[in-house]
Amino acid sequence: MFWVAGREEEAMLWLLSVSEMGWLQSVYRVLPVYLSQPTKSFSSRFFVSASKPQPQFIKTLTKRQTRASCASRCSPTTWARLLMARLLMARLLMARLFMNWAHLLREDLWQQVFPVGTEWDQLDHVYQYKWNFSNLENAFEEGGELYGQKVYLFGCTEPQLVFFNGEGKVTCIPVVVAVASPFPPSDKIGINSVQREAEEIVPMKQMKMDWVPYIPLEDRDSQVERLASQIFILSCTQRRAGLRHLKLERVKKFEYCLPYFYQPLTEDELEQSTIVQIIFPAEEKPVFCEFDWELDELEEFTDKLIEEEELSEDQKDAFKDFVKEKVREGKRANREAREARKKALEEMSEDTKAAFQSMKFYKFYPMPTPDTPDVSNVKSPFINRYYGKAHKVL
Description:
Helix content: 25-40%
Oligomer: single chain
Order of helices and strands: HHHHHHHHEEEEEEHEHEEHHHEEEE
Shape: elongated
Largest sheet: 6 strands, mixed
Number of helices: 13
Low-confidence stretches: 1-71, 100-106, 221-228
Number of domains: 3
Structural class: alpha+beta
Number of strands: 13
């Protein structure tokens, strides 16, 4: 169920029926019994009957205790009024609890999507604001962009300078990308960064990631195989608590991940690229540069690096041999990619081709609210180097 304005009463009735609320129902059943014992405070009675920790607002609202001496002096009429007042307070407290769970219901979908490629120590900063993704939820309602479609969701973050309360600050903005497709867009993850010599394309499961069905809160007690889910989210089972047991290189791999996508119907820009990344292990410091085998002349390129003191004269020949090898690797990779695409097209069914042609990407940014920075000026259709640009930004 997705939250829509005007369905608050329906949500309240639903919340009363779910199994997780059984402890609240037990509170309500035993509350009159406890209230009939004037020697105990309302606060202690409430917390004895509740089996789970309560929010701070309950502690604040129930600070004052009802003393036995006061209750013993009350007339029956006064005591009845006091009892009714306590019951009313109990109803208000439970209403606050219900609204709290309703808020979790609204926020649940986007928070379930793993923000791929986000540094582990930045995850807390992503959730420091109560971001509003009602546009994502509404897209699944009747008349929305994603209504009735099979959708695959993955998350990412975009560090941007945004203003909040008159102050500019670089903020990790959460973004959710929705891929409308009859099948998973990919089962692989790209691992790349400027520090790495070459990119890796690995199976998602190698990085503990996979497409899993999104189960709405009201169906969490049901068996997954009985649910005909139309929404799948990219999930990661790696927990931050377990990072200390991993090598630093393995931890960093998670931060260099990019959701991978290959469109066999169009020639990839990587197939056309004539640029190779050079990381030459020089004596004093590595040489980082890009070499274009169509535009750059190797001799002039090397002399310029020596002139700029990026490379020593005695390493000139070794550097040239290194670049030549990288160029050969680049050309071979381009050739293999073109051959792989050609083979994939030959083996592809007409239904699969039609599915690739109709596949759409939607990029969702948080909606503006008084409690969050305004991101309307930093929205971009670009997703990543594999997916390219979104068909629509919301």
